[in-house]
Design brief:
Blueprint (H helix, E strand, L loop, with lengths): L12 E6 L3 H11 L4 E7 L3 H13 L6 E3 L2 H6 L5 E4 L6 H10 L4 E3 L7 H14 L3 E3 L7 H11 L6 E9 L3 H5 L8 H7 L7 H10 L8 E8 L4 H10 L15 E8 L4 E7 L11 E4 L2 E4 L4 E4 L9 E2 L1 H4 L5 H9 L8 H15 L7 H19 L5 E2 L22
Parallel strand pairs: 1-2, 1-4, 2-3, 4-5, 5-6, 7-10
Antiparallel strand pairs: 7-11, 8-9, 8-15, 9-10, 11-12, 12-13, 13-14
Helix pairs in contact: 4-5, 5-14
């Protein structure tokens, strides 16, 4: 059964969990409270993280998990039926491919690709093994994002023309203290100049636009500003002698990327994490009948909204609540990031249990991750447009709509 759950296997899905940094621990806590999940095996490079999570699971009364330093021991463990990856960005693909080759469905936390070849390897591994792989892009399961998806499907925006998304998050302290706190993000900022974290803004837009199912990305163009924010923060808060205060980041403080789609739409992405700012994903959905903007939480629908005036989006959410969220609100919202982390994990668990295709599949994963490598190329070329690979090899033209399960996007 390729590691899937069926009627002859235990009711609980045995998970192997790889990567126990802050993000990993947050996800693991959610999984540990799910009655149909068992955390069977853990892996992390650092012993203290393994011990902390082992203690956490013990306090919850969960069965003691097997603990390993090497992720391959988790994948190879006979009782493990599915894998979740929450390790550093540049390790995701390697681990995901190892899981697919072992026949174990795998879900990976988000991040950008180091190269286009990495994306192609993911796709080829999936096509050779048939083992499903999902990207855990939690923002696709946000309440607002799912309500917008429902509205788009019902034609409220007319024909879509343009979408925007961003990762606007003041990460100066996290990056500046990255070495001391063993956080991998700083190493990417030191050595790369591109949109290193594109999927929070891109994922929901891609689902709205039917990317890889009747539409695809065709080209992109990126530009980056100079780098000042993190170094100045380090000087102010850690002193002129701190290594970060003496080092320029390769990553520009603001990276802007424009993507063209095959059906004529455009997507504007912004990576903005090195300057003082409140959090925002900068969402915008615009079509022939209306526009929604995340900042301000406002919407305008022609022939419904007052002429030339914004309305508050909250007045629309209940009317166009996605069925998943309608049920979720009744049952009780759980977990971090407003509840979307829990829904994203459940989407993976249910897809494994029902043996259905993943709602964010390998072709989505490859296309979204590729933005990082392509944006680096475009910036090096002075903002010139670069062609976007078609990871479906033409199948996007007639590829059927996604499965009809509750969590399908």
């Amino acid at each position: 059964m390729n590691g899937y759950i069926d009627d002859n296997k235990p009711l609980k899905l045995n998970i192997g969990f790889i990567g126990l940094g802050k993000r990993g621990r947050d996800l693991l806590k959610l999984l540990a409270d799910m009655p149909d999940v068992s955390i069977t095996a853990l892996s992390d490079l650092y012993e203290d993280r393994l011990q902390e999570v082992f203690q956490l699971l013990s306090e919850k009364g969960s069965p003691a998990p097997f603990c390993y330093k090497d992720y391959r021991d988790v994948i190879g463990h006979g009782e493990v039926q599915a894998i979740i990856i929450a390790s550093s960005w540049t390790s995701h693909s390697e681990i995901a491919m190892a899981a697919m080759k072992a026949g174990k469905p795998v879900a990976s936390e988000v991040g950008g690709a180091a190269s286009l070849e990495e994306c192609w390897q993911l796709v080829r591994t999936y096509e050779a093994t048939g083992t499903p792989c999902m990207m855990l892009e939690n923002c696709c399961y946000g309440r607002e994002e799912m309500a917008l998806l429902n509205m788009v499907r019902q034609g409220m925006f007319g024909e879509l023309i343009h979408c925007q998304g961003a990762y606007g998050h003041d990460l100066r302290e996290e990056v500046a203290k990255g070495v001391e706190n063993r956080h991998y993000r700083v190493h990417n900022y030191l050595h790369r100049n591109g949109d290193v974290y594109p999927t929070h803004g891109l994922g929901p837009a891609a689902k709205l636009l039917g990317i890889n199912r009747g539409n695809r990305f065709t080209k992109l163009s990126s530009m980056a500003t100079k780098s000042r924010g993190i170094r100045q923060w380090a000087r102010k808060n850690m002193g002129d002698d701190h290594p970060v205060a003496q080092t320029d980041m390769a990553l520009g403080d603001i990276v802007t990327t424009m993507i063209q789609c095959a059906n004529g739409e455009s997507i504007l992405l912004t990576h903005d994490t090195s300057l003082p700012r409140p959090y925002s994903r900068g969402g915008r959905v615009q079509g022939t009948r209306g526009i929604w903007m995340e900042d301000g939480a406002v919407i305008h629908i022609e022939d419904r909204s007052p002429a030339h005036e914004w309305e508050k989006f909250e007045t629309y959410i209940q009317e166009f609540e996605h069925p998943v969220w309608a049920d979720y609100l009744k049952d009780g919202v759980r977990g971090g990031h407003g509840g979307m982390d829990y829904l994203c994990l459940r989407a993976f668990i249910e897809s494994v249990r029902l043996n259905t295709e993943m709602p964010i599949d390998i072709y989505d994963m490859a296309a979204w991750m590729a933005v990082t490598a392509l944006s680096e190329q475009s910036i090096e070329l002075g903002g010139s447009a670069v062609a976007f690979p078609d990871f479906t090899n033409g199948r996007w033209i007639h590829r059927p709509a996604a499965n009809k399960t509750a969590y399908a996007l």
